[in-house]
Automatic annotation (TrEMBL), chain A:
The lineage of its organism: Bacteria, Pseudomonadati, Pseudomonadota, Alphaproteobacteria, Rhodospirillales. This is Amino acid/amide ABC transporter membrane protein 2, HAAT family. The chain crosses the membrane at residues 12-29, 35-56, 68-86, 98-124, 131-152, 172-192, 212-231, 261-284, 304-322. The keyword Translocase does not apply. One of its GO terms (cellular component) is plasma membrane. It is found in: Cell membrane. The keyword Acetylation does not apply.
TrEMBL record, chain B:
Keywords: Amino-acid transport, Cell inner membrane, Cell membrane, Membrane, Transmembrane, Transmembrane helix, Transport. It comes from Tistlia consotensis USBA 355. GO terms for molecular function: L-isoleucine transmembrane transporter activity; L-leucine transmembrane transporter activity; L-phenylalanine transmembrane transporter activity; L-valine transmembrane transporter activity. It comes from the Bacteria. This is Amino acid/amide ABC transporter membrane protein 1, HAAT family. Pfam families: BPD_transp_2 (PF02653). InterPro entries: ABC_transp_permease (IPR001851), BCAA_transport_permease (IPR052157). Belongs to the binding-protein-dependent transport system permease family. LivHM subfamily. It is found in: Cell membrane.
From TrEMBL, chain C:
Residues 1-30 form the signal peptide. Transmembrane segments: none annotated. Belongs to the leucine-binding protein family. It holds the Pfam family Peripla_BP_6. This is Amino acid/amide ABC transporter substrate-binding protein, HAAT family.
Amino acid sequence: MSAPRGLPRGLLAGLAGIALLALVTWLLPQLVSNYLVRVVIVMCINAVLVASMGLANGFTGVFSLGHVGFVAVGAYVSGILSLSAHAKGAYLPDLPHWLAGITLGFLPSTLVAGLVCVALAFLVGAPLMRLSGYFVAVATLGFLIIVNVVLINAVDFTRGARTFTGVPLETSLPWAVGWLAVAVAVIARVVYSPVGRRYRAVREDTIAAQAIGLEVLPVRLSAFMLGAFFAGVGGSLYGHYLGSFSPAAFYLAYTFTLISMLVIGGMQSLTGALVGVVAVSVASEVLRNLERGLDLGIFTVPPLYGASQVVLGFILILVMIFRPSGIMGDRELTLGPLVKPRQEGPGREIKR
Amino acid sequence: MNPGLYIAQQVINAISLGSLYALVAIGLSMVFGILRMTNFAHGDMMMVGAFGTLLLGFAGLPFWLAALGGIAIGALAGVIVERVAYRPVRGAPDVSLLLTSLAVTYILENLGILIFSSSPRNFPLPDWMNVALQFYDGQLTFTQINVVTVVATAVSLGFLGWFVTRTNAGIGMRAAAEDLQAAQLVGLDVDRLIVVAFAIASAFAGLAGVLWAAQSGIVEPHMGFTPLLKAFVAAIIGGFGSIAGALIGGFVLGALEIFIVAFLPSAVSPYRDAIVFALLIAFLLFRPNGLLNRSQEIKL
Amino acid sequence: MTRTALHRLPLALAAGLLVSTAGFASTASAADTIKIGAPFNVTGALSSLDAPALNGAKLKVKEINDAGGVLGKQLELEIYDTKTDPTVIASVASQLVSQDVPVGMGFTDSDSVLALGPIFQQAGIPFVTPGATSPKLPDQIGDMIFLACFGDNVQAAAGDEYLMNEAKAKKVFLLRDNSTEYTTLLAKYFDEAFTHDGGRVIARDDYKSGDKTFTAQITKLKALSEKPDALYVSAMPDDIGLIVKQMRQAGVTEPIVGGDGYDTPLLIQVGGKAADGVVYSTHAFMATDSTPAIQKFYKDYKAAYGMEPENAFAALGYDTVGLIADAIKRAGAADPKKIRDALAATQGYKGITGSISYPEGTRVPAKTVAMIGVKNDKLYLADEVTPKWIAKP
């Protein structure tokens, strides 16, 4: 754990991390098939989303069901920005002039998408973050549904329920891994800093936090906005991975997938979020291939489409029964000095 | 068309839709009241009840008997789910409960697809239920299904009212909803009360499922999802956890949905769900305990 | 605990990936089969449309194999359930590419085809969709993508001509489901064609697939000061029976016209008597008293799956396999490039949903549109149309 004295630990770890990531992104496509590379890219995108979702949900205790709403906004904003002028003319003929003329690269449009989400999160969060518990969950669910309805009806910008397509396929493995590294580094930095302690103070006991002079609203709002930034970034990655999407892709089914990843991994731990993404993704890929039927030589198992979801459901229930706080609970895996975990006492596991 | 009749027609439409929302919302609210649990699988009991009715009908039972059987099957499914999936996680964090119920939804809906296929099936009705009643030269119409829906809702609400005020189990349930720990301390058998609550809630969902299928004419594995979402809104409007609140919330939501489409310009009707949810958020902010202002600490 | 969890993780990952790659090994053994990649959304929101298409495809594959296969080899569908999830679709697409399937087929909606398309396009593997009826689709992706069905602009124009010429309707009320691409696009094309031919859409309204009561829209329709001659309702299969029933119960008597979403037994099962006076455009007249080929399809489908074809996609799935088999035969080898060229050169392939030809340079077939009417709980062939003016895709 201890780095050589005299060297700036952060810099060393950062360089080592970058070297490692570069190696992985270079090596992986040489070793495995394009299919597995794709699975890994999707995992990275989901990891960005789940980690940022965990920021608000796990660390400040504000259970938001609206995260996917920001993902949708991120995907559409970045998609509109990065669409070529030709594609804009073909697919979005009614776009306002000032937008029709702009074509940004992948990185700038992703950043803009993230910033738009931050602004939106401020507008939405300023009132909603006053609520707590179930009520914030319901209100943010309402946000998700409103985003969906607006996307379907803002035909000039989104093509409505029709597929939004023509987005350049830019999300390669290096981009996905790179953004994941940035997201994890930033979120880890924030969570395990004095600011992060405030987050957890607010989560553990709102009234006590107020009593020691913490203003709850700004604390929650800042977490919500940071989470929204990475949701927008993740949305942009998602959009530039598939190249085409429609409002239906960013709705409840995706919300539930992300939540199960978050809760399975452990809401109150950053590495938990990552572990959850990997566990759920691997399980569903494996089950999806198994449900197509097995030829075991002696007897064959017929294909049972839908069986993978049933089995996955049972696994979820078993995890909830035996590890109600997820695989990691509020523990962290130490990934080097970049993340400085500090045990803040046992997490409150039982509320009622 | 006579404007008075136009309004009367829309009110009838609203009551019919509101009854269905109320039936689903009440069960959702009952379970929430006791366990503080948002039961996403509640909508699937509608699917179970409707498919149960369909199968019993195929087996040759008359419609009303098949419907009662379907409702009983719905209730049974609710009790089984509680025993197998929810009881072991009772006391876990709220999100874990929520996720468990989501997992149950995954399982039930995909089992539905595996068993019945995903194609919607026709839900056959006795002919008299399809008869349309017309008044004022057809300016005011509704069908026998609407009448059956409203009557069935009223009867089951009457039963529920009697149950929670006059029976020991019902009073116990209310006590448990007030304070689960206290109910346990004074010696109430909480496990049994929760089973009863799930049985009743799921029976209500089963009934709603049968009525929903009767109105829409089809049964399919995903049928419980939309009504569940609506019931969720209805329960919040009324004050989550309160039975009377859920009832009122159901009717308010039904009326909102119908009136937005009926009385606002056509350009607005695609935004119906957005308007409903915007109102819901406003409700949460300004009247967080619902229409029946039951005090509950939810704001900062 | 944290340490062991970390150590177990790569192990679990490796095991998982091994199992998923083992999937390839088990199927790669047979060299005497020609594989057709078949991703379909068998579960999830689109399953009620995709599952019948897959069933139809399976039926045709069995029929062809029983008759000796193609080029002396048996056909084999490489089926994957893509779960109505775009990321799963993209993963499955690359899985199929790495299995070296020479050709693929699947899906009934553009979202799914667009998620898969670029990957097949890049790999140079042709893909035929039985049911995604957006006419823009092939040009959006590239020269590897084919439609086995006509575009929505064609059937919308057929509906328009039927209304104009047969029903003598000049004023229509347009109701559409605003939540899907198919229904919004069909309504848009109809609007364009009807207006082009001198008709007028006097009012329009929206609903959302899954709504179970249309009473508000209906009451509003009845209160219109100007009465429409007919209604054009752009709806999905699961909703149309109910819409028709509620309309008729409320005393709306005008003809109701729509697209191939109506082509499902539910229209009459749910609509009952109310379905009288409904006319819709679809791919072929599917009924027991139709042509021998369709009768055979009907009988075999019922024998195999215990129910009548659920919607038009069943027949389209069946024809798509026939179309691909025909192309493989003409290509003379299970080679992607040759199959693509053979597909593009298809002239007059006789399917049960009509004759399929790809005019020079297009990958959307020119097909006639069948207009089907309902009378006394029975379907009849109202008209067969080759529309004159078709809205631009």
